[in-house]
Amino acid sequence: MLQALAAMGGLAVLLGALLGVAALRLRVAANPLVDRIDALLPQTQCAQCGYPGCRPYAEAIAAGEAQINQCPPGGDEGIRRLAGLLGQEFIPLNRAHGEAKPKRLAVIDERVCIGCTLCIQACPVDAIVGAARQMHTVIASECTGCELCVAPCPVDCIEMVAPGETPASWRWRYPVIPLKVSA
Length: 183
Prior knowledge:
Keywords: 4Fe-4S, Cell inner membrane, Cell membrane, Electron transport, Iron, Iron-sulfur, Membrane, Metal-binding, Repeat, Translocase, Transport. Belongs to the 4Fe4S bacterial-type ferredoxin family. RnfB subfamily. Residues 29-88 form the 4Fe-4S domain. Residues 1-23 are annotated as: Hydrophobic. The structure is a single chain. This protein has helices at 2-25, 32-40, 54-62, 75-86, 118-122, and strands at 105-108, 128-129, 137-138, 158-161. It is mainly alpha-helical. Strands 1-4 form a two-stranded antiparallel sheet. The chain has a two-stranded antiparallel ribbon with strand order 2-3. Strand 2 (128-129) and strand 3 (137-138) form a beta hairpin. Helix 2 crosses helix 3.
């Protein structure tokens, strides 16, 4: 019994060492430029740029296969940041990929939702929760506003709305009038 355990342990160590060597020898070096470009993109994973997500779009920009003006959620500010990083001139958003618009959040009318799960399957960031034939809801803090859940909904129960006011986003909207105190 002890010999069998020792043999299995030795085999595990040998295979672990072999995997470690293979990982080092077969490692693919990451492009740091891709990481920097990806960090500037809005991470909506909306595919409006023509790529399945922000990372593939960043890889295409780094390889010179895509222009910096294909991301509607990033808008002009995103294009300016990309142009600054890459040392290129600003070019306006390519309208073929969509219009720049303010961030929106998906909201499901839970009274109308039939629980078909099509929106769950379409969401690239897993911001929708629910089960088959059960009401679904959106986790607002996870929703990127990509709108990919709207089209597959057969009962049109998903609406894109402006994000609500939170304690973190609240600002005093009225001018502060200094009080004159007389002595």
